Amino acid sequence: MIANKPRIRMTVRDGNQVPVRAYYEGGSQRRRMAGKGTTVTGPNGPIENSLATLQARSHHAIRNNAYAASAKEKYVSNLVGTGIKPQWGNPVIQALWDEWAEESDADGVDNFYGQQALAAGAQFEAGEVLGRFRYRRTSDGLSVPLQLQVVEAEHLDPAYSHAFGGRLIKMGIEFNGIGQRTAYHLWRYHPHENLTKALNTRAPVPADNVIHMYRRTRPGQLRGVPELTSVIVRLYEIDEMQDATLARQKLAQLFGAFVKRKTNQDPEQEDPYFGHLVKAPGEVDQLEEFTPGGIHYLEDDEEVTFSAPPDIQGQYTEWLRTELLAVGAGGGLTYEQMTGDLKGVNYSSIRAGLLEFRRRAEMLQANLMVHQWCRRVAAKWLDVAVITGRLIIPGYWQMRKQLLAIDWIAPKWAWVDPLKEVTADMLEVRAGFAPRSEKAGERGWSLDLLDAEIAKGNQSADTYRLVLDSDPRITAKNGGLHKALEALAANDDENEDE
């Protein structure tokens, strides 16, 4: 019996039976595809076996590889920037939140928006990050007795899987009978800190008190993997290639001169051309290392032979660029963002690349940062503020969902050519193809807040009788004061009536 023998079916063409292969080439086991990707796994098996090593290598690459470190910085700066901020729509709640945001960090280092950046960086580096709510005493002096602790993913052991007494623990996460997360079994201290290893134990923490932020790429996936997972091998190979190229160049700089002693030369007779530079037998030092620009003497019949490895210097720059393009694609960034190399870039090409990247960043902002992180924090904070009496909201539990319908505003994008972008946005709004709220959101504003700020500015200008070129109520687009006299006259009439 022949294994993997393809099944052949027959079809009729021009009255003759013609064999037709009845399988996809990608599913065949012939020479081109033999042994490639034939291991079938679920969404969690490979993660359970490889996550610890992937995280360690990702940490090492970001510590030591400039491109990996740059990828992380660009990821965080574009995803979070100065912070994704809530617009509560209630000035009392907003003021209390703004006060608490400065004291949210359980470690006492960052504010809430700094913690967002810390969490996003940890998620990029390790594939996931944990946030733990820490309740405080009302006497601790906090505006709301709650703080947030950002915890590295290594606290959640991927090798800790257990089933007992009807309970299932999978990769450190405990589930109930219907698959809901009930607890996270966390190391009390970081498992790789030497000072605390002897004291370390696992503790179950209720799932309601833990945020687990990670990017799911397969249904049923329980843990995240580092963002650089698909290019981690390339990053190490780039390092090795750069080290080898540098070593080759250093070796080339060591070459000086090699002097061979003349055969049958009488050691007692001075050489008429070189004098005492040519040494007698046994006087030549053993050649063990080169010195830059040195003159090295050889014994009789000695020769120096160098290896001649293939030289790719002519293609090195293009090879490196190709590899970095792959690294950028695997990390979700453009090549120009990651490397800072803008050679050959024009407005159209860089804009197209940035638009594609920003679509991905907006998706991650909405599905990762806002939905998994910010929304959970806001809901817990509001509950604690009401329960502890920091906010008095009658009928709170009936209107809780309405209060938590928050606009989370991300920092505005900076465009390559602001004039072209603003002109295009203005034409879209005037033509009715886009609402003002959409364009305001792209610039980091909620429409209500933007209009409130514009009204505030207009009121101030009217109070001080200012006619500004930026005020469309008075000044035309071309700068003409088409209603300046009417506006001033109307104000004078109102003042006389009063």
Description of the structure:
This protein has 498 residues and is of the alpha+beta class. Helices cover 42% and strands 14% of the residues. It contains 13 helices and 14 strands. The chain has helices at residues 45-64, 66-79, 91-101, 112-126, 232-254, 313-331, 335-339, 347-387, 396-403, 418-431, 436-442, 447-463, 484-497; strands at 8-13, 16-21, 85-87, 128-135, 146-152, 162-164, 167-170, 173-175, 181-187, 202-206, 210-214, 257-260, 295-298, 407-409. A 5-stranded antiparallel beta sheet has the order 6-7-8-9-10, with no helix packed on it. It has a 3-stranded antiparallel beta sheet with strand order 5-4-11. It has a two-stranded antiparallel sheet with strand order 1-2. A hairpin with a 2-residue loop joins β1 and β2. α1 (45-64) packs across α2 and α2 packs across α4 (112-126). The longest helix is centred in the last third of the chain and has 41 residues, at 347-387. It is globular. The mean pLDDT is 83.
